[in-house]
Input
Amino acid sequence: MIFMEYGPDQSDTIILLHGGGLSWWNYREIAELLQGEYHIILPILDGHAGSDRPFTTIEENAEEIIRFIDEKLSGSVLLIGGLSLGGQILLEMLSKRKNLCSYALAESAAVIPSKLTNMLIAPTFGCSYGLIKNRSFSKLQFQSLHIKPDLFENYYRDTCQIKKQDMIAFMKESTAYVLKDSIKESSAIIHVYVGEKEKREILLSAKAICRIIPSCKLHQMDGLRHGEFSINHADRYANAIRQIVKGE
Output
């Protein structure tokens, strides 16, 4: 796994895990805003553009990042955040190590498996994968994600680099993910963020996470769709981190 870093390494560390199909630029603007206050690490998840190995499982990605924290960061960090697939990896990390971080910010993470969607991923992408490199098709796909326009070149460049088997692998993992009961033992103060306009399964997943972890704090954001919080509203996201760390 490759790790991008911002800010002085002697500062408290924050790790942010990007969404599926994206890359470290998901959090670049946020890292730039916070680099004067914290040491920011942006891993490039396996199987994504710029990564050094294929995607296998959510569990293995979680274990890789935990090993990095053990080897480079003395076993714990201040805060870990994650969007969608990155949020699932974050939740998996918390279920594996109860004292991994003081705070956690899970954005739009699905924990309710979808068997039908999971079954359809391989045949669907087997037929349509070639269209990803078509710039016009990619632009339509990009627009459907409601990501701010100035990130299109990053999106197009990186989606073109994702291999079909990796895309299928992380999408199948994401649609099959189940939250582990062991997350109840986590000592982290966990915040779950979800957009008001998200798909029903994401909204239900946010509530499910908070049922499993009663101390969890749920934040539903008016008017936002999937991923918009971290991708399109860097100022708000950076301020949310500051408030979480201050206990507000």
Q: What stands out?
A: The two ends are 33 Å apart (CA to CA). The chain has one domain: 2-111+178-246.
